[in-house]
């Protein structure tokens, strides 16, 4: 039934994430150790502190997020307004004779 499909993503080895590589998490680990505690799942948060992109690329991604939907929606809105003659300027033609 169905066979085996290759996964489209590669699951990383958990050993590559080390708490010792992140100073903030290392401090948390040390504070817990002072109280006789240990968080076995602390390693799961290492990826949050390891940057894989330059600050410039993170900025570009942040500024361009949503453009795939936003730009076509903007263009469709402009086209619909032009087609139906919708004008938001407030300067419509009326017969009251005052300006």
From TrEMBL:
It comes from the Eukaryota. It is found in: Mitochondrion inner membrane. It is a single-pass membrane protein. GO terms for cellular component: mitochondrial inner membrane. Pfam families: NDUF_B12. GO terms for biological process: electron transport chain; mitochondrial respiratory chain complex I assembly. Keywords: Electron transport, Membrane, Mitochondrion, Mitochondrion inner membrane, Respiratory chain, Transmembrane, Transmembrane helix, Transport. InterPro entries: NDUFB3 (IPR012576). Its main location: mitochondrion. Accessory subunit of the mitochondrial membrane respiratory chain NADH dehydrogenase (Complex I), that is believed not to be involved in catalysis. Complex I functions in the transfer of electrons from NADH to the respiratory chain. The immediate electron acceptor for the enzyme is believed to be ubiquinone. Belongs to the complex I NDUFB3 subunit family. This is NADH dehydrogenase [ubiquinone] 1 beta subcomplex subunit 3.
């Amino acid at each position: 039934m169905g066979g085996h499909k290759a996964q489209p993503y590669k699951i990383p080895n958990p050993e590559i994430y080390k708490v010792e590589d992140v100073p903030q998490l290392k401090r948390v680990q040390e504070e817990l150790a002072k109280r006789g505690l240990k968080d076995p799942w602390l390693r799961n948060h290492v990826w949050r502190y390891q940057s894989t992109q330059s600050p410039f690329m993170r900025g570009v991604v942040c500024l361009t997020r949503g453009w795939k939907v936003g730009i076509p929606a903007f263009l469709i809105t402009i086209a619909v307004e032009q087609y139906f003659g919708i004008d938001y300027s407030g300067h419509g033609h009326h017969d009251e004779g005052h300006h």
